[in-house]
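Box 3.1. Reading complex inputs
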Amino acid sequence: MNTIGTLFRFTDFGESHGPAIGGVIDGMPPGIDIDFDAINVELQRRRPGQSFVTTQRKEADEVEWLSGIFEGKTLGTPVAFIIRNTNARSEDYSNMADSYRPNHADYTYDAKYGIRDWRGGGRSSARETAARVVAGALARQVLAAKGIEIMAWTSRIGKISTDIVPASRDEVEASIVRCPDLGNSARMEKAIADARAERDSLGGIVSCVITGVPTGLGEPVFGKLQSMLASAMMSINAAKGFEYGDGFAASTMRGSRSIDPFVAEDGKIKTTSNHSGGIQGGISNGADINFNVAFKPIATMARPLPTVNRKGENIELTVTGRHDICVVPRAVPVVEAMAAIVILDALMLSGKM
Amino acid sequence: MNTIGTLFRFTDFGESHGPAIGGVIDGMPPGIDIDFDAINVELQRRRPGQSFVTTQRKEADEVEWLSGIFEGKTLGTPVAFIIRNTNARSEDYSNMADSYRPNHADYTYDAKYGIRDWRGGGRSSARETAARVVAGALARQVLAAKGIEIMAWTSRIGKISTDIVPASRDEVEASIVRCPDLGNSARMEKAIADARAERDSLGGIVSCVITGVPTGLGEPVFGKLQSMLASAMMSINAAKGFEYGDGFAASTMRGSRSIDPFVAEDGKIKTTSNHSGGIQGGISNGADINFNVAFKPIATMARPLPTVNRKGENIELTVTGRHDICVVPRAVPVVEAMAAIVILDALMLSGKM
Amino acid sequence: MNTIGTLFRFTDFGESHGPAIGGVIDGMPPGIDIDFDAINVELQRRRPGQSFVTTQRKEADEVEWLSGIFEGKTLGTPVAFIIRNTNARSEDYSNMADSYRPNHADYTYDAKYGIRDWRGGGRSSARETAARVVAGALARQVLAAKGIEIMAWTSRIGKISTDIVPASRDEVEASIVRCPDLGNSARMEKAIADARAERDSLGGIVSCVITGVPTGLGEPVFGKLQSMLASAMMSINAAKGFEYGDGFAASTMRGSRSIDPFVAEDGKIKTTSNHSGGIQGGISNGADINFNVAFKPIATMARPLPTVNRKGENIELTVTGRHDICVVPRAVPVVEAMAAIVILDALMLSGKM
Amino acid sequence: MNTIGTLFRFTDFGESHGPAIGGVIDGMPPGIDIDFDAINVELQRRRPGQSFVTTQRKEADEVEWLSGIFEGKTLGTPVAFIIRNTNARSEDYSNMADSYRPNHADYTYDAKYGIRDWRGGGRSSARETAARVVAGALARQVLAAKGIEIMAWTSRIGKISTDIVPASRDEVEASIVRCPDLGNSARMEKAIADARAERDSLGGIVSCVITGVPTGLGEPVFGKLQSMLASAMMSINAAKGFEYGDGFAASTMRGSRSIDPFVAEDGKIKTTSNHSGGIQGGISNGADINFNVAFKPIATMARPLPTVNRKGENIELTVTGRHDICVVPRAVPVVEAMAAIVILDALMLSGKM
């Protein structure tokens, strides 16, 4: 269950403080010239320590390629890669060995497996998402060659939100919180600084748009494209909600206000609005696909929290490891990666590759 | 891609105006005494024509069991069933043969397959959900024997919403819109009547709570329980969003306000609040699982809508078939059915059966 | 686990004495004009009561199509069909309710499920293969349009075997045992008549050749084309062995005698011999694919056999139902059907559709 | 398609002359104390250069564990591992870059992918089976704790065969060809020496028996235990055939000679013979499971062979790399590994873990 996809299959492994994290991509199309620099750019975007709004923990995040590539080109065979875990200060977590951090996976892993690697969250650590970013970056290179582009950004942090849709990734990257609305970006930074001062944390929303998607991706009934996207997005640590097109707002709307009329222009059929978010009946209609993913405030805060230990005693626990105040800016490349993985798989399933 | 599940696998088939819809349940546990009446009750709840708020189209919805059952007990072999399509007034849809209804699947099916059964939406019709209700009702009987109960209700229709959580299904069924808040239930009915008068339609939200779930359901990373639920819920016709626990509201909250402290009571560990919605790190923690599903207003309205035909000509289309003004009350049993299918599969995967 | 295939997925259901057997084909390519007569021809070939060498039990085997077909063409949506069980003389099997027939599935089903439909073997009856023949006949029509043809025949019954490869299906059908070698065909008929007289049964071998297969079908490692074929063939009732190319004989050969030299002719690369059986490294090489499937003598004989009952008492059991003396002639169309299902799935996976 | 299994899922990656081969085991039961020495013993058994009958190429085959293990115990999360490729003399293969070795995967990989790592066969090299041996050794440790043991041996090399079933693995390991029949073992060694002298190669058969298997493993129809075993065995390089129980010999037998009568002894039901090979109706019956796998003589011989190059020119090719004369002795641990992977998956699927 650590694999996602049907034809483009990504298997992800690793604990945050074990020897390495990594992945295997099975179904990678052959003959692709890999742009290794572009993959590193994505990893940099996800990496901790990018700016004052993220955790100061440093991770080198160097990818070692093990298979599936020959003279810089993909072979069509499984592409395996690892990222070594360095700078792992396990001692920061020693008081976690026998305690359950609230709103983390410590208790549920113990309940499920009877054992867990308590160092830094182990398998449940968001460090695992670095492997997703690598796989997503590979998928993206295949998609880009087909004219499909994916762009995500921060549209909310705490109480501050924006409706602005960026025109390019540069507009996203111009902000350290990855919000293309510069006024609100500054307010978001301040909100994070305030939360840090108060030893608190913040949630937010990542918005994403996918352009250039051909018609016909997705399947009726259980393989609907929105099902594939929702499953992938909800697998990201701290994600609490997914919506596409009009999303939750649609629940308050009248039908007459949410129609996307078809028009024919130059022999091509398209819609004049996009309440549908680019998907109708589970299948892409050629319009942009857009969706939002809600993230909770992270549960690790520099304050004592009431909880229990493995012996079943009620205790107070203060987690001292380095951590983010708000994961949303770093979640932006992870959302893009998961979108790329899903869309490439759907493209391959559609027979349009 | 018309199959959902890993160990409890449900394959769904059928067009709304073909000979029959139906399904095959592979992985049904053996030796279960099936309560056929309870299955019919669920089908009645989903059925059109229940009340003035739903379409007046009548469907007999009689289940014919084909396999997997011997002397009233499940055999462990695939349980196949069909529901004949009767009262199918195809002529209502004859102007759909060459036109694409806006916000429906007509265009995308044609784009994907180059052919479609245009009668009543064919495969994309919500009639297909009757088969899901049958499969869900079977799953539910297995879950009930394990102390797991699933209850959904209408928490929003258009602008009217409620926070009331029903104490029992009777409170839900007391309202024809399936809203346990009687004051708001009446307002919802009126909103539907108003929308009908104005030839419009309404969206809404279905809320669901699952009680009695043991710890340990769900898997790390891509098999997270929320991923399974999100995928299943987003596969329901007209669903636009999914959230669990604090959901989208979590994006506006601070971490200090969303902690679920663990406490030990009588040697049992539990949380004193449930911002997590019963799932932590992708795995059930023993608390109630709760989630919401947003539904858009349906796109079929008794008014002419601008669109195109297969020849690529811009036209106006008036769909004259019988249809709902608001699908939310009838979506309630479908949400429950999909939840039952997911939870039983997760239970079987967890090895706790 | 009653589903086979990845992109062309066939789910099979039904007990021999329940209401119906049937199947769902998910992934059927859209827009195919179905030749229903050709499907019936295949069912006739599998049907009992064709000649004196098969069981005299009659089955109408009429296919009822439920979904996925509109105006004679496939829609791309799941094709579901059923075959009613008529002429089911359950009383023939009443002494089986509490006894375990030797070398049948009675005991293992009870051990696995704690319950079984004892009438005629229920799910374990070879009647289930009729559904395979329908699915295979559909697959075959798609393959034929791509120039891929599948032909199987009887190459051994008991001690009598042949090396003759038929030039056409007519040569196969000219013999009631489906052996294209007329001299040996007559001897096989006599062997069956002798075994019947002695209340015994006979095994044999079905050989199969697939022509017109493009290069590139099958995957490295676990998805090898021979793995897919072996799995499918070993799923047929009474199959005990599978071999392709030189098969078991290869184990006795020297390498120098089993080389398939490549030659280039008119810019096309091919082999001058076919020890490989059309598959190299798990992937089709463009040569004919050929394989053999060994079938055991069936275990139902018109004589008392020592066994036990559910109470664990040692008894003698005489099964009085009608049955074949040798299943091999009727297994020929089943082998072809399974080959068609596998090859179409592999073709779709290869992206060559 | 480089993954095998449903609940115990093994994903295998790597080219023979790339940086590493390896695998990911998803579904490994938690809390298992791994015996690393036992895993190394298995790798030694598969390793080239063990004796004069195997290739003199040396491979260190040191396993590096990357994830899923904490303080020597499995975590229930994916177990990833790699084996570095050292001693890879790519220059031996330089004349293979543009040529297709007969009966190898060179041509089919090029036909499928348009690219291949020609060094030593790349992905198609049997070096990949080292990863299978690691995964199998882990599965075996879980099975051993349940009383399930797997033992394979060489029962044929070329014209020399034996019917002797070894009493223990020691009897197998006492022979460098892994044949427990010491007289025939010596003859097999001589046959290999002769073939080497004549620049030829030899095939053979590996036999395997699995003891301690509970009843109820395997599924009706497509998930039959023999289907799972056949698929796994046919995925091994050079395998040409699979049979279980009476196998191909059953095709020549009469039913009356192949009955396995049930008897009840001390309240336990068992068979007095085992023509069925431990599987009836696709499900284990509690008796020993036994099967044979036929291997062809390898196609690499120290002699020039006629073939073509990528340009489509007819040439003669002499492959100078080090290679085995007969792979059968080294295939013995691979057959055991694949059997362990299949049986553990079937055990987990049966709910008997």
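In summary: The mean pLDDT of chain D is 93.
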